[in-house]
Design brief:
Blueprint (H helix, E strand, L loop, with lengths): L6 H7 L6 H8 L3 E5 L14 E5 L9 H7 L5 H11 L8 E5 L3 H12 L11 E5 L7 H23 L5 H23 L10 H13 L6 H12 L10 E7 L5 H10 L1 E8 L18 H12 L8 H17 L4 E7 L3 H16 L5 E6 L7 H22 L3
Parallel strand pairs: 1-2, 1-3, 3-4, 5-6, 5-7, 7-8
């Protein structure tokens, strides 16, 4: 296929955690809210005068210093973030907010604070730690609303004078929805029998929306959507179609590896992806915006932090529904090594998706950056593709 006009631009944005659009927004006097987890309602950290950046550590190498403080048994995402913070890589942030999606992430940010890695020259800089409900019910919603009010809205207002009114939240949701509509419209092309966008290209576009001020991406995303409407897809470019499900994923090279082996990544259900991360928020006038926003994040969230039966069953049913909707032949279930919440979820999810729902499943634990295990992962993905092809032949599929 013809190269997308803006793909290189988006790829360059992802090469460093501190990209040119972050610098542009900072020069305009806006407050950078850094955060670490999908349980942060994004519109709340993209109010007027602010913009959000989900912390990443691209091109991670040695993590010796972070391992010293966190031990080698914590997930590589948390260690990579602390290593980058110690190096001064998050100096652009005006605050850091983390929910307790897992204790590893809390320990990472606590060490950032204790080591005074960020905000040294900013007397208004703050760290905040949020408690996330473990059950999606009315009590959980009350907790969620309270935590968002006390640990996002209140400190932004008190430290930086940010407007946190109901009207301001509604404006932020409206801007958020425009971005979501674009990403979801682009993602719809993945359903085609001959997709006109690769899974890698889509992953790059989606990740950029977490890594840079959102409204500065709108124009290029609009142009990309129009470009895709007339793009001519390749013939028979892939051997199978797969959904990638699992934990935090900001390494687009993983998606590229899977597709280079011959498996088209037609849908994504991982932290930092588009499903359900780029679902629009629906607000009505009969209830305050904060409560409605938190309710939708809580009930649509797929994080294993939620441990009630309905949410656990729902996570597996959601993965199956994506595989059905996007015409997947199999599912790749991934987790970062030493990620405790997703380790249990992956074990059960892979078993149920395979044995009860009938989808071939490749279950892998992976490093934060796949460079160190590229060959091993490639071999496993190739073997998975071949096994799926054999099953298709046995069923008589074309």
């Amino acid at each position: 296929m013809k190269d997308l006009k803006h793909l290189i631009y988006f790829e360059k944005l992802l090469e460093d955690s501190n990209n040119e659009l972050i610098a542009q927004a900072k020069e305009d006097g806006r407050i950078c809210v850094a955060y670490t987890c999908e349980n942060i309602p994004e519109p709340l950290v993209n109010l007027d005068g602010t913009f959000s950046v989900r912390l990443r550590a691209p091109r991670t190498g040695s993590m010796e210093m972070a391992t010293y403080y966190l031990t080698s048994f914590l997930c590589e995402y948390s260690r990579a973030l602390l290593e980058r913070a110690i190096e001064g890589g998050f100096s652009y942030a005006d605050c850091v907010i983390t929910p307790d999606g897992c204790t590893m992430m809390n320990r990472c940010v606590e060490n950032m604070e204790l080591l005074n890695t960020t905000g040294k020259d900013n007397d208004r800089f703050f760290y905040e730690y949020m408690e996330i409900p473990m059950k999606a019910d009315d009590n959980g919603l009350n907790l969620y609303v309270l935590q968002c009010r006390n640990h996002i809205l209140k400190p932004l207002s008190e430290n930086y004078g940010i407007d946190v009114s109901d009207a301001a939240i509604r404006r932020a949701v409206e801007k958020h929805n425009r971005l979501c509509e674009l990403i979801r419209a682009i993602g719809e092309f993945r359903k085609e029998e001959r997709p006109r966008i690769t899974g890698y290209e889509f992953a790059v576009l989606t990740l950029a929306t977490y890594a840079a001020p959102k409204e500065l991406l709108i124009e290029k995303l609009e142009e990309t959507l129009e470009e895709l409407r007339t793009r001519e897809p390749d013939e028979n470019a892939y051997r199978i179609r797969t959904v990638v499900v699992g934990s935090e994923m900001d390494d687009v090279d993983f998606i590229k590896l899977v597709e280079d082996c011959g498996a088209y990544v037609c849908a994504d259900r991982f932290c930092g992806g588009s499903l359900p991360g780029r679902d629009p928020i629906v607000l009505t006038e009969d209830e305050d915006a904060l409560t409605q926003l938190c309710r939708q994040y809580m009930y649509r969230g797929q994080c294993p932090r939620y441990m009630d039966t309905a949410k656990m069953v729902g996570r597996r049913e959601y993965a199956k529904s994506l595989a059905d909707e996007y015409g997947a032949d199999g599912i790749i279930y991934e987790q970062i090594k030493f990620c405790d919440p997703w380790a249990y979820e992956r074990m059960m999810g892979a078993h149920i998706l395979g044995n009860e729902f009938g989808y071939p499943v490749l279950s892998v634990d992976r490093p934060y950056s796949i460079g160190s295990s590229f060959g091993q992962l490639r071999t496993r993905v190739q073997a998975f593709i071949e096994s799926v092809e054999i099953k298709k032949i046995q069923r008589g599929d074309k």
